[in-house]
Amino acid sequence: MIVFSVLQPLEDVMKAILDFFHDTGHLTWAWSIVATTIVVRVVLVPLTVKQIHSMQSLQKHAPEMKEIQKKYKGDRQKMNEELMKFYRENSINPAASCLPLAAQIPVFFALYFVLRNFANHVPEGADLSWLHIVPDISAPANSHWSGYLLLAIYASSQVLSTWFMSTTMDKVQRWIMMGLPLVFITVVAHFPAGLVLYWVTTNLWTVGQGLITRRLVPKTPAPALAGGPKRSSRTPPKDDAGNGARREEPVPKPPAQPRRVKRKKGGARR
Question: Is residue 269 part of a domain?
């Protein structure tokens, strides 16, 4: 009840937006949810830009952070202190990558409360279908075969969105994050189908955003580590001009042969 009371203003806003798209925009309730989702994502664009910049900064300085973690791997407290110092010096906000998701959580719950009591909000006999496939967006997703189709789309879109938005994660963490939707799908199946429709729309938005970002935003090269790049035995040494040409090494002279002293018969050395 506390959560409900805190989200009541946001729930009223969600109702007003849905009513606007349905009454003024003459959209069905399902498409009103899609339009509301797009509005929410447009409002979150500034946070999304911060998220992209934060991910680029993390990716750019990843080698340096790995060096800090490697240097202080035996002292976790010291490692955290050095990482926080490194974040401040390079103006990195690691929490910025979670801002869009954190901002969507209240919207998600507010829409959940709206759809939970949707039958009391809309007139009796209102069209609650979507694409003539989902018969009732206020009913649980697992109450109809079309809901399972929507859940499959949700799972695949969630995996794709995680793939695009977790490029700075460790490989193991990335696979775990991509596998979580398959675990949560048993819980999401009990949510109203309209809520799943909202999440599918926001995931598809994230996928499109990731595709556009990869095409338009150039990759930032990682800074060189202290001491320069490590050279292998096959790497040619640099000459005095700084290029990578191999210098001519002086050919060592063969060692001089020891002088042999001739002896006279019956006499001493000369």
Answer: no
